[in-house]
Amino acid sequence: MNTVLLKAHLAVLTAVVIWATSFIALKVAVGEVAPMVVIFLRMIVGSLAFIAAWPWIRHGINYQPGDWKYLVGMALFEPCFYFIFEAQAMLYTSAGQAGMITSMLPLMVAAAAYFIFKERNSLRQWSGFIIAVIGVVWMTLSSTESEQAPNPILGNFLEFGAMVMAVGYTLFVKHLTRRYSAFVLTAIQSFVGVVFFLPLALVSDWPSHVSLNAVGCIVYLGLVVSLGGYGLYNYSLSHIKASTSAGYINLLPAFTLVFSMLLLGERLISAQWIAIGIVFFGVLLSQERNPPIPKEVPPGATG
């Protein structure tokens, strides 16, 4: 493997690691600051970063009449509704369990495409979807209340709601990626997010004191996760196949689980490990040559 290819593989691997750590950063931040305030501040940081980078990313726009409907729909699903669910979820469940639930997104998109667009899904894909759902339900019901997950059933349900919003986002973005780069779409999400979350942040309780740790997590979410993650992912796409880069995304739940254990001290009981194995098996079983999420569709703004 030459140096360029090695750098491309390291870039996409680093992007996945960054996206995985976003759950941990969000978990830490909402422990001190109201969820809607955290998301609003994250959107502010992200928007400033994209404004600074705009001269380099503005060329990734090919607007066509009527695109505003898809852009508005995309932004409403994510970040608006998506982060309402996910930020609240992190108050009640662990970062590791939330990360595991994200592995169901491709299966949920396939199910939505079947009912909305009448796209055919194979028996194997439906079997994988059912098995993964069983695994998530088992993982949730076997969870016990802890400092990291005071109400895991509610938290995992809210995270599942975030994935439902991500499905809507993906269906819109499937259409938009033919004319807009991942950077531009993410920038639009940040700009809309600032406007949407401003009133929600204003009616929230603002803490009188915030630790540097929480501030660092918010800046990390807005700057490194949004700009750095997509920058590295797009760099990899310029040197290796899109299918190769997208394949690394499957490691996201595993990395999230590892980081939640190392950084937050989260622990899982044996029944939950079995359930996680069932989820991974269901996801693996559902893999198709023509996946429901095209390789060009950027991942949702996780964390």
Shape by Cα distribution: globular
Largest sheet: none
Overall helicity: over 70%
What is the domain total for the residues? 1
Average pLDDT, to the nearest integer?
83
Low-confidence stretches: none
Write a structural description.
With 303 residues, this protein is mainly α. The protein has one domain. It is 73% helix and 0% strand. It has twelve helices and no strands. Helix 2 packs parallel to helix 9 (212-237). The longest helix has 28 residues, at 3-30. The two termini are 33 Å apart. The mean pLDDT is 83. Pfam families: EamA. This is Drug/metabolite transporter (DMT)-like permease. The chain crosses the membrane at residues 12-30, 36-56, 97-116, 123-141, 153-173, 180-204, 210-233, 245-264, 270-286.
Give a topology summary.
Blueprint lengths: L2 H28 L4 H23 L9 H23 L5 H7 L3 H13 L5 H19 L10 H25 L5 H21 L9 H26 L4 H7 L3 H13 L5 H16 L18
Helix pairs in contact: 1-4, 1-9, 1-11, 2-3, 2-8, 2-9, 3-7, 3-8, 4-11, 5-6, 5-7, 6-12
Note the main attributes of this structure.
Drug/metabolite transporter (DMT)-like permease; mainly alpha; EmrE-like; transmembrane; 303 residues; transmembrane helix; globular
